[in-house]
Design brief:
- There is one protein chain.
- This protein has 4 helices and 2 strands.
- By secondary structure, the chain is mainly α.
- The chain has one domain: Tetratricopeptide repeat domain (Serine Threonine Protein Phosphatase 5, Tetratricopeptide repeat, Alpha Horseshoe).
- The radius of gyration is 15 Å and the shape is flat.
- The N and C termini lie far apart (42 Å).
Amino acid sequence: MAKAEASVEELVGMIEREELLLAAEQGLPTAQNNLAIFYERNEQLVEAANWYRKAANQGFANAQASLGVASRTIALIQNGIRCSWPERSCGS
C-alpha cells in the first residue's frame, strides 16, 4: 500500500511546528506560547498546557491566562464532561 503524500497545508504545519519547537526549546517565551497555541489548535491539550506552563513560568501573561483555561478544560474532560476545543464550551 503506497503512502499518501502530505498536502501543502500539512507540510507547512510540520515546518511551522519544527521552527517553533527549536525556538521554544531555547527558552523563548513567545515561541513557547505560540507552540502551545499550535498544539491547542490540534487538540493536543496536555502538550499545549506543558508549553503554556513554560512560558507562564517566565512571566508571559498570555500564557498564564491560557494555561488556566487549558488546565480547567483538561480537568473537565478527565471528569467526563464533554468540551469542544478550541471554543472551550463545556457541558455534561
